[in-house]
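Lecture notes, unit on protein representations.

Consider one protein chain, 217 amino acids long.
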Amino acid sequence: MSIVLFDLDETLINGDSASLWSAFMLEVGLVDNAFLSQERAIMQKYSSGKMSMSEYMAFTLTPLRALSQQKLADYVAHFVDKYISSRFYPQALEKINDYKQANRRLIIISATADFIVTAIAKKLVIQEVIAVQTEVVDGCYTGKTIGVLSYQQGKVERLKDYLGNEYEGLIRTATFYSDSCNDLPLLNEVAYPKVVNPDEMLRTVAEHSGWPILYWH
């Protein structure tokens, strides 16, 4: 069974789920306006591929320290219903449905925190997720991450670890949908790169490489 990989933000949904989560945290009183301003300042470097994901995760996970898994799950369920459910690209939903009917193996691979990506994947009825792993100790979040961050080359490393011995065989027929230049390492690995609503850098590479460019709305 061949695999189809999907980035999440600006690929399956119209928006960035991590930034939307920060806005939600402000709404429910977990952070203040100064936090949101700093989050936006860090994110400005993302489209140029110069953002430090470790810095971003350390900053944005700090408000969740000592929060229980159940309390965070309640927050995330509310977040997905209010901030995400209306943002799925219809074309993405059609693709997902087509691939399911063709019995393809679907995996969402994202640089967003696992508790967010897993909840969104559940909404799409996609069981497999690779995301930034967050640490939980005694049922509570520590505000730290675990292992390699699934960002830039880290996505390739995490996928190799996830698929294990299957990687070499599966990557030869794999498809990957993404909008971001940060995903070029993985786009260059798969057999069928698909570029969705690309940033300027990725669009330039896609045009030069002859990759399909899709515009979803």
